[in-house]
Design a protein that fits this description.
This protein is mainly alpha-helical. Helix content is 67%, strand content 2%.
């Protein structure tokens, strides 16, 4: 299995952006059921999100060999310096704006967000900045556990090194065509995924493209977020043929 190309802080930023969008949709669209709780993100980040983050570390490393685990955790740990909140405010705000309008195109540049939107994002970011050290400490602990010869309950590296990698489903599709197919399925609600990163990881772990055996998470994310016109044209023709095949099957 190919080592993840999105490292832990990048994945954490995506997760927070998606949570911020989902929470805002709740109290904006279902205001009779949900009221804005100013302490929600404080509790979420130091509780459920931190627990989820630790599980993500083990999930992303359990199928990797020793060299890949060491690289993944070391690079992830270095991101706590290169991707510190002070350096990532604008990038995270842009990501939030893009996720908020997904699957639609953003109506304007993220810098033109309303005062209300800016205050909301600033509120979420404030708690991220405050709890950032918790995620860094969890990553440091995971790296130390690895160096000591264990990594939580998942790690038995001598056995992992001997395990056969999961066989991927071979396709005649390009990475961009695979990504667009899953984007369509997701947009139609056919796929029930809480987070887009779950889709990216599933594709990378399960499929090979006609160009290469290993499909990286990062290439899937890029093709998913920014669909390729040739891939859209490809599926437009395929969907018409599939529709015609269904009609034929119904007439049998």
């Amino acid at each position: 299995m190919e080592a993840p190309q999105i490292f832990l802080v990048e994945e954490l930023e995506l997760r927070i952006s998606i949570e911020a969008v989902e929470y805002k949709h709740k109290f904006d669209n279902f205001w009779e059921q949900y009221k804005f709780d100013p302490d929600y993100f404080n509790r979420f980040m130091e509780g459920p999100l931190l627990s989820e983050f630790v599980q993500t570390i083990y999930k992303r490393t359990q199928h990797l060999n020793n060299n890949e685990i060491n690289k993944y955790l070391t690079v992830s740990l270095s991101q706590f310096k290169t991707h510190s909140p002070k350096l990532r405010f604008e990038a995270m705000k842009e990501q939030y704006y893009r996720d908020y309008w997904y699957p639609n195109v953003e109506p304007d540049h993220y810098s033109k967000m309303s005062e209300y939107e800016n205050k909301y994002f600033g509120h979420v970011f404030k708690w991220y900045e405050k709890h950032f050290h918790l995620f860094q400490e969890a990553t440091e602990q995971a790296l130390q556990d690895f160096k000591k010869g264990y990594l939580g309950s998942f790690a038995d590296f001598s056995i992992q090194a001997q395990q056969e990698p999961k066989a991927k489903l071979k396709t005649n599709l390009t990475v961009k065509e695979i990504a667009y197919l899953f984007r369509v399925l997701n947009d139609e609600g056919i796929i029930d995924a809480k987070h887009k990163t779950d889709i990216f990881n599933f594709i990378a772990e399960s499929f090979s493209s006609k160009q290469k055996e290993d499909v990286s998470v990062n290439s899937i994310k890029n093709a998913f977020d920014t669909p390729d016109f040739n891939a859209m044209d490809f599926w437009f023709e395929k969907f018409i043929r599939l529709r015609d095949n269904v009609k034929k099957d119904k007439q049998k």
